[in-house]
Specification:
28% of the residues lie in helices and 28% in strands. The chain is α+β, with helices and mostly antiparallel strands. It folds into 2 domains: 133 residues, Immunoglobulin-like (Sandwich), CATH 2.60.40; 127 residues, no CATH class. Strands 3, 4, 6, 7, 10, 11 and 12 form a 7-stranded mixed beta sheet that branches. The protein has a 5-stranded antiparallel beta sheet with strand order 2-1-5-9-8, with no helix packed on it. A 3-stranded mixed beta sheet has the order 13-15-14, covered by helices on one side. Helix 3 crosses helix 6 and helix 3 packs antiparallel against helix 7.
Amino acid sequence: MMKFIYPYRTLTGFIALAIDEASIDGREMAAGYFDTARQEVSLAPLDDSPWSSVTMHVTATAPAVEINAPDSPWSDPALSIMIQSGSSNARLAVTMEADPDTDGVWHASIRLERASFAGVATMTAIATATVDGVPFRRIGASDPWTLRFEDKPRSQAYDALSMAWVDFANPTDGEPDLRAFSKEPIYLVIEENGPILYLNKGFDGLYPVLSDARRRSGAVRSVYNLTRSDIASRVWQALFLASLAHAEIDEDTGEISWPVPEWMVTVLQLLLPRLYPGRGVNDALVEALAAMSSPDAAAGLHADLVRAASAQAQMPKLMRMGFDLLSDLPTVEGDPA
C-alpha cells in the first residue's frame, strides 16, 4: 500500500477510528444510521424531525508498540479529531484524551451543531508528535468517516450533475452556443458549482432513444441501454479526472486536501475504491495523485479508469442485457451464423 513519503519517520501501523455511541439532542441514535463497513453516518433522515445537535463518542486506536515506544524518534504523541465539510466551509478540531488504562487508545466527545454543517463532511483521527524538535508534526491518520447531512444517492451515474436537451446546431435564447459541436451527441461542462451534461437534440436518433425508453422493448431497448452506459462511462471518466485535479498533497506536511466542491469528493469516493480495491480512500487518493505525475503510471491509471468508470456506469451489465435482447431478434438472411 503506497503512502506519502515524509521527511521524517511516521507510524507504520494502522490507526482505527470507531464511533462508540451517538445521540441526537440527547436521544440515543439507532444503529441503522451507521454503516461501519463503509464508515458512514447518515444524518439526512433525521431532518424529517428538526434537530439541533448530534453528539458522538469516538475511540481511536493507534499501534501502542510504536507510538509510545521509548526508542521512537518522536515525543509527546497526541491524537485529535478533524471534521471538515467543503460544502458548508466548516472545520472542527477536537483534542482526544489518552485512555488511562489502555496504551495506544484515545477518546473524544464531539458535538456537531446542525446549523454549522451541510452536505457531506469527513471525520478523521490525526496523530501528531514532536519530531526533530518540531511540534505537532503529523505522524499518522485514520481512514475518514463520512458524515452525510443531506441525502445524496451514491450509485446512480447522473446524480452528481444536471442534464439538459439542447439542439446544438440551433440554440435558442438562453441556451449555450454549442454550434461548434453540432455533430457531437453530448457536451459536458465541468464547473465547481456542478457539472452540466448537454444532450444534442439535433443528433439523429439520440432523443427518440433516450427520451422514452420505458415504452420500448427489444432492439430499441438494447440501444437505449448501450447508449446510456456509454455516455455515463465517458462522463464518469471526465468527472474523476477533473475532481482529481482539484485534490492535492502538502509537500511539507503530507496532509491530503480533498476538493472543496462536494460533488467532486463524491466522485472520488465512488471511483477510488474501484481503482484501488482493498485500500483506504486516503491511500488510494495519494496513489492516484502520484500516478498523474508519472507518464507511465498515468497511462496505467487512465486504462484502469476506463474499467472503473464502465463498472460505475453498469456498462457490462447493460451490454449483456442488450446482447440478450438482440439475440432474440430473428436472423436476417445473409447475417453471419
